[in-house]
Design brief:
CATH class of the largest domain: Alpha Beta
CATH superfamily of the largest domain: P-loop containing nucleotide triphosphate hydrolases
Largest sheet: 5 strands, antiparallel
CATH topology of the largest domain: Rossmann fold
Structural class: alpha/beta
Radius of gyration: 48 Å
Number of strands: 21
Strand content: 15-25%
Strand order of the largest sheet: 2-1-5-4-3
Shape: elongated
Distance between the termini: 125 Å
Helix content: 40-55%
CATH architecture of the largest domain: 3-Layer(aba) Sandwich
Number of helices: 25
Length: 577
Amino acid sequence: MESKQIIELDQVFQAAKAGIIVINDQENVCYCNPVAAESVGLSAKDILGKKIKEVIPNFKLRSVFHDGEANAEHFFMGERMFITNRSPINHAGETVGAVAVFQDGSELQSAVARLDTMQNSLTGLESIFEQAYDGVMVVDCAGVVTRITKSYCRFLNIEQEKAIGRHCTEILPTSRMHIVAQTGQAEIGEVMDINGKEAMVMRLPLREEGKLIGAVGKVMFRDVQDLRTLAEKLDLLENKLKFYEKELKHYQKYRYTFSNIIGKSQSIIRTKVLAEKASLGKSTVLLRGESGTGKELFAHAIHAASTRHDQPFVRVNCGAIPAELLEAELFGYEEGAFTGAKKGGKPGKFELANRGTIFLDEIGDLPLVMQAKVLRILQEKEVERVGSNRLQQLDIRVIAATHRDLEKMIEAGEFRRDLYYRLNVFTVTIPPLRDREGDVLLLSEKLLTKFQRELGSSLRKLDRWVVELFQLYAWPGNVRELQNALERATNVAEGDVIHLSDLPLYLQDLEGKRANTSLQPLALELAEAERRAILKALKTTRGNKTQAAEILGIHRTNLYRKMEKYGLVGGDSEGFA
């Protein structure tokens, strides 16, 4: 070869982007271009003349020289991968050397890794596609099936291999996939006949860079009956939701605040201050006081002033619910828990009060067996419906109230000591009306204004004899008794002034005795004692008037007459205390 050609050839090798190394029959490097030297990490001057195994130990160029056969593979120098082609150099029928051309394969390695990742993703998508329970079919723009799930093939009674590549109408005559693939108009919620069954399907066009390339169809419901069943379930859930909304709306609002507690006496002012402090905390509150003092009013006010004021306020009168229904009312029940159980079950009072306040009025009347269950709820803050084994966590605050002597009930074995200590955390004792000096006339004024608004009557005033009697009387029935007396007087009074003759009979009798005898204070005390005895008997018998009359030793007719005399029929003290 002429020297000029050799020079030109060397210039080509020098400019090549691949590494080139040549060895002679002694396995010494006789040529090395700059790319090869840079890859090895040495200069061409330091490489020339050295044994190839000293330059690149794992290069395997020697094997090409000895075997006389070309090969191609990849090898590593450090962390870099190279792809190489090795060929023997022959002259006059003899192998006189070997040449290797190699190139950095890092980019190729990265591309292979990306390809492997894509392949894994594709495999995963293939698996997801095939595992789809509902039927899925994909067609191209001509309506030819390109993909179809195995589950859909089983539904259509056709093998997957036979379905792919055929027109969609060949495997399902009623198919409209080819129409959607041509028009690009989606069809959702369409009912079609599939093998004699009404199925609900949806068909969506497929686009790539804005161009229509096919369509995908999916069976939403294999049988329209499934949809009807789902609709029934949704209807049941909707009814449940409406019930809960109705119940919560009923319990959501508190009716009274501390501003509704009327009074200027020191005893009621001190009680209000204490109750306001109770409202700021999270502890259980126990309201104590005689009947008619306004314990429920205080319960509403404490909830209204608390951080839970925008959550439910649920009231439970423990003495008014029959014992056999009390558990279901408090804890709720599941469907089928007992004969007559409401379909879908019903939430209990504790459940309805979640995140809010539950007011357990007349807690002293709670049966012993229920006391244990209520104690567990207060301790664990969780409730279990009747007929269920699932516990529901609760976030509730408890306010309890009673007029009974719980300490005596504990000694008599009628009230659990552990429940008492759980309830008696923050006690607020509401004073009776007889201990609220000056509050009777103030309350009378507010009550008369209330009756004017509710009954549509003119505003009544008390004559001086009524005022004198009201201030003298001890009001054993407290605010409830005062409200009862004034409501009765408002209804029977003919003018704007309430006279003694407008009051209940037992108050008229007391006033008559006061006017006709010097023993009036004793007469008043006797009347009050009789009234208290009647109240106690009614409470003991849970309102059974026949049994109450037997306890008192009087005839039932006489008991009714005395109840009317003392204003114990009807009446309510809500809204005032």
